[in-house]
Amino acid sequence: MKGYVMDKEQYLIERLEDQITWYDTKSKSNQRWFKSLRVIELVSAAIIPFIAGYSESVPYGTVVIGALGVVIAICAGLASLNKYQENWLMYRTTCETLRHEKYLFMTNTRPYDGDEAFNQFVTRVENLISKENTQWARSIKEKAPGGQRK
Questions:
Q1: What's the per-residue H, E or C state across the chain?
Q2: What is the pLDDT of residue 149?
Q3: Residue 1 domain-assigned?
């Protein structure tokens, strides 16, 4: 696409709004997963001592206790492996920072109050997106099996 130039409106809609929506959606999804897994962990952990107190009268009480322990381990492992909390916070931060930059630009507020406002805006927005992508790639490398980098 040699010679293709986006104007302000195109950039705001096709690039910035698209990125804000993506980060917002991913943040909400990661928050939902993190909180759901934590609730399952908490409920399972709370049930274990209750069943243990009545283990003689609860059929298969020891099996249920063991199964709940497995559920807790799986939930904790999934939360840790997929980094739901970290992703939730990182995506939310990026989303809100992009929104902040958008509102500064749309109101001609410093640093977007000069002749080069649009160029500065695009540069800052793209740097924010690039920084988040770099952090994401680093976290993926840290998740490689056996702690090895991919």
A1: CCCCCCCHHHHHHHHHHHHHHHHHHHHHHHHHHHHHHHHHHHHHHHHHHHHHHCCCCCCCHHHHHHHHHHHHHHHHHHHHHHCHHHHHHHHHHHHHHHHHHHHHHHCCCCCCCCCCHHHHHHHHHHHHHHHHHHHHHHHHHHCCHHHCCC
A2: 45
A3: no
Q: Are 14 and 6 in contact (CB under 8 A)?
A: yes
Residue 131: predicted pLDDT: 87
Measured distance CA(86)–CA(31) in Å, rounded: 9
Q: Which two tokens stand for residue 55?
A: 């283990």
How far, in Å, CA of 41 to CA of 46, rounded? 9
Q: By residue range, what is the domain housing residue 59? A: 8-147
Give tens-digit pLDDT for 87-113. 999 999 999 999 999 999 999 999 988
Whether 92 is covered by a domain: the verdict is: yes
